[in-house]
Amino acid sequence: MDSKLLNIGFGNSVVSERVVAILTPTSAPMKRLREEARNEKRLIDATQGRKTRSIILTDSNHVILSSILAETMAQRFLSDGTGKEDDAKNNK
Q1: Residue 91 lies in a domain
Q2: Which of 2, 19, 46, 57 is placed for a possible disulfide with 12 were both Cys, Cβ 3.0 to 4.6 Å?
Q3: Coil, helix or strand for 41?
């Protein structure tokens, strides 16, 4: 089984096959989703104390918070998932 990992920042990764959605955290429904997940012990905070910039929803109904922008996360999801494409863009 060859699972690809999606880098969600600060050395944290998620198996990309388990990701259902990558969402922006600013809307009221996303804030409710976060609170419901927290109350039901399904919330995983991978922000390392920084501002939440994306919410990852998994097929196990877990909600993962990341400080990486949702757009960047989507690019990583569509590429190899490591975040190396960001480094290549920044070096140009």
Answers
A1: no
A2: 46
A3: coil
In the chain, the number of structural domains is 1
The β-bridge partners of 19 are 58
Domain annotation covers residue 55: yes
Cα(90)–Cα(77) distance, integer angstroms: 19
Tens digit of each residue's pLDDT, the chain (92 residues): 678 999 999 999 999 999 999 999 999 999 999 999 999 999 999 999 999 999 999 999 999 999 999 999 999 999 875 666 544 444 33
* C-alpha radius of gyration, the chain, whole number: 13
Taking the C-alpha atoms of residue 15 and residue 45, their distance in angstroms, rounded to an integer, is 16
What letter represents residue 89's amino acid? K
Is residue 34 one of the residues assigned to a domain? Answer: yes
* pTM for the whole structure: 0.85
Q: State the residue range of the domain holding 74.
A: 5-83
